[in-house]
Fold each of these.
Amino acid sequence: VRAVVLETDGTLALRDRPKPTADGECVVRVIAAGICGTDLELLRGYAGFSGVPGHEFVGVVEAASGREANWVGRRVVGEITVGCGECAACRTAGPGHCEVRTVVGIRGRDGAFAEYLSLPARDLHALPASVDDVTAVFVEPAAAACRVAEQVRIEPGMRAAVVGAGRLGLLVAQVLRNRGADVIVVVRSGRAESLATALGFKTVAVAAAGTSLARRFDLTVDATGDPDGFDTAQALVRPRGTIVLKSTFHGETPLSLSPLVVDEITLVGSRCGPFDSAIEELSAGRINVKPLVAGIYPLDRFAEAFERARRGGKVILTPAPGNEES
Amino acid sequence: VRAVVLETDGTLALRDRPKPTADGECVVRVIAAGICGTDLELLRGYAGFSGVPGHEFVGVVEAASGREANWVGRRVVGEITVGCGECAACRTAGPGHCEVRTVVGIRGRDGAFAEYLSLPARDLHALPASVDDVTAVFVEPAAAACRVAEQVRIEPGMRAAVVGAGRLGLLVAQVLRNRGADVIVVVRSGRAESLATALGFKTVAVAAAGTSLARRFDLTVDATGDPDGFDTAQALVRPRGTIVLKSTFHGETPLSLSPLVVDEITLVGSRCGPFDSAIEELSAGRINVKPLVAGIYPLDRFAEAFERARRGGKVILTPAPGNEES
């Protein structure tokens, strides 16, 4: 089985790996997998991961053991955390916060930049035909975007600024708009501006935002994936407003906490979200992902694909495209 | 009028100042004023303040202009922010968050370490006889403690850890306990431990807390007033839990934001609170402040008083004690 492996020295290489077996889990043949900002951070040391990255995928279940046999042949997407189901965190905060969890392509579990991966059936979601393969790759990030609306009450007319017009930022912006928020997207480049505009958003350049729009927004979302994003999100939020943190990156940021106290800001860390809502929104066409696709590459052109992903947009690897190999 | 003045070089000196006049505000003769952790931070450069510090006080209104004349003779405590009432922040987040606000003894307005101060009548609260002068000094910090319960829903049985057994920490701990939370106080010294224990709290030493109680609490409150407090509060909170920030201090802290995202922590900045609730709780004896008093000093012994305050406990200055001078 061919797989892109992140070595401990931070480099990527195409390797041959043993094919996973259906030992209590389902074996999924990966049709397509998206490169996420987190994957780029993994290469820089985030989470200390080595193994096969990739956690946004669509595939077909090829094998399953025992009572999960009914999954065989289904086209699926998969949640990325596998919890023990028994610890305090599993019981109070959910398996996504399990102390000993594995996370597909991020922590202790190989991911989707490979011809096959395995996952427990309870992590899988069958896809309706209305969600095509390319769209399906966006289920995981769209779920993460939907999570914001689970954590923060989105009121119609609420003024929201999404900082970062990357893949995740533009998904979050759409989710907030769908719930009635008045959304502006803070962009850093002309390319990002075009993309946000194509999706119907007002935009503002990051430099201008900090001055002309300071302290104007009820809700700001940092989806930049870099440390500067927080500063912008903090500059834009009004007193007693809310900042949602969507960025995970390697390293520390020097932060002055006192302004958060003085302005009584609420900061909400936000990670994975509800797959059902995401599939529903994507299936109904309420989240538009097609303009976000920057390129589709076969697995052996992974180096080129990662290089393209660094320049922005969603890049998709196709370990086993379509049904040709089935 | 004698006043303790914080000079621009960070030193304190007893000075003679002009007596405030009732020019649209009420002139309050200060009976007693508490030294707060924030005052100690002001001396280290926090908020860039120079002038008369002191924002926890009880006094008697001696003069008022026009329609506010009915305040004369009343024993009062005072809210500390004075907003313009017209800007966007005043309208959305309240006058406490006014862009051009003054704050008693902290920002653009002389405070209570003086024989007299002035404040608009709308900031004053008359005190019932059931709240004595020493207790009254705690109205402002008790209100700040009550603020936590306005911002975070306190459920009976909720596991809460208050980091810091200082004046504010022990007020917050009492407010949370009064609302049914199961509260433990994280202490740094034997003295703090005795104080917390005297108030009926379970305690744990900060070093032990980080390991044995890591990720156990639904709610943690940083009331330490120093940068380390946040680390402890973060170590103790469970995934998807809430950290309330009560500390304001000078300087930046290197912070890793990604764990807040991964654990989906909510951070709540918390500042001033409802005076009415605080007066009610203190009047009913539901918040016990007497064990927190470390010393009472006349104004001219301010240096000694500040030195004592640095060692912990609430230190009270008495610019015009009792009614002898009225």
Amino acid sequence: MSQPTCPNDTLLIHSTMALSDETRELIANAIRPHVLRISSRAGATNLTPADADPDAHAAHVLFGQPHPDDILASPKLRLVQISSAGYTRYDSDAFRRALRSRGVPLCTASGVYDDPCAQHALALMLSAARQLPQAFTLQVRRTWDTPAVRRHSVLLTGQTILLVGYGAIARRLAELLKPFGANVLGVRREIRGDENIQMIRSHEIDRVLPTADQVVNMLPASDSTRRYFDAARLERLKPGAVFINIGRGDTVDQDALIRLLNSGRLAGAYLDVASPEPLPAEHPLWTAPNCFITPHTAGGRQDEQRHLAEHLVENVRRLTSGEPLLNRVI
Amino acid sequence: MSQPTCPNDTLLIHSTMALSDETRELIANAIRPHVLRISSRAGATNLTPADADPDAHAAHVLFGQPHPDDILASPKLRLVQISSAGYTRYDSDAFRRALRSRGVPLCTASGVYDDPCAQHALALMLSAARQLPQAFTLQVRRTWDTPAVRRHSVLLTGQTILLVGYGAIARRLAELLKPFGANVLGVRREIRGDENIQMIRSHEIDRVLPTADQVVNMLPASDSTRRYFDAARLERLKPGAVFINIGRGDTVDQDALIRLLNSGRLAGAYLDVASPEPLPAEHPLWTAPNCFITPHTAGGRQDEQRHLAEHLVENVRRLTSGEPLLNRVI
């Protein structure tokens, strides 16, 4: 039997994120009899951190990027549903303890972003293998130079590919990589045994780094991942390797990466994240040789609001029926 | 039992293609006691058409891009092994009849190029979905504009993808696409029933073109495929669709494609082939809006010579043991 529920309770869902009329209607219809309210100070995007807002304190469910103080000050709160995959703003021991003691769960929306991130990572990997930026640069010069591009074109097939930071994105990326016949290896702090690829422990990475053709960094920001790819580790990359970062900029010693790119030892670096973001115009990463940048767009999807809405609706349904919540992190 | 073979016969394999010392040794060791000879006039690449060369006439096996007259003038010939996937130079009724009447098979090396072509096509498809050229253009301007790129970022998941010209490349591409959960549809003149995706007949394409998010053209050059994508057909593409060509430039009305790109109706065209090749510097395709060009590099692979050598060795083995030949077209 599931936990006892209160079907007659009407929940107030308070969104700190602005929603299109279409999304608002989708949510309102799906959660009836519960009620959706958009904050009068709602932020423009799913990533806009909300300022403190006393209106939030009446909510049973907070959706978006609510201010941590509001979360702690809302007495009726039963669920915090974050509108992003990352949740650094809420990731402190004190905050965790406070929510846990009240039995209030906090869920991310990582399920909305796993698939775009995995497809983006594969786009960057194939782009490197098939020399797309090099070809597009030739196009600007109106130069049809087949041998120049073919000379460096490779397949993912047979390559050794290292997925660093094994979670839902890496799991999906491993699925996408399966038909290629590559040698895909995952790296994780603690191996759980339910991973879909061969795994090694985080501290063993230095042994396999010199064998990897492509290294995909998916590490989140935290004290333990800060500069995980430090100078010594980056220097273990094999000559001609490709380094991809769709995790967080802080996890890499960017100065060391730039030195490595300048030396010509790497075939390329593909970065969707940097430190700081936005990357200032004068930053040397913009023009480092064979460095290719997408501006934190790995999680992007045109249908993002609809998927965030469906994710919220599903977790409200699970909350009221006592089922396990999706992407619960506290 | 296989056909009777003559183990004491020594075959002379004449290559019109220049080979590295490593490749030459690989072949020579693998075919012993048969003998490999490289033409004194050997062409620089696997695609260089050989001029007429009387030295070829003693060969039992011709490898490379032999002159059609030499093929017809070689009395001991038992196999022609072409060093490319395309074989337009040998694709006439008269030539086919001549070879057939002598029982001389002609094989392409398409097996060497299927996988790179399929991976290249997927690289272009993901590049379009994830807005990579747009991001790289922002990088040149040192502009970190996340919303500009995210706004148009999509997934292949749920898209309708049309593979036009179903052969070994499309079969491989369909395998690579499987984990994405896209709606993949193949188009072919005659459906055989052994295809790995849902198929429609070539003449039915106009019905489904307006529903396709991405159209991948893999048609070879021939009288029947010339301007298969004419103006009327291109205009059936839905607004925002992506058109990819890794087949042959002649199969598309390029003027109509440029008009369509100029009108902004398409999200993009990704072309690995053009007419003519090399594309002259003054050609309007180079600068058509949202047109992205790779210079006939879809089949490129760094390990190309080794794979061509292994393909030749395998077909010589099959020839001498009476087994069916790989990629036989005549």
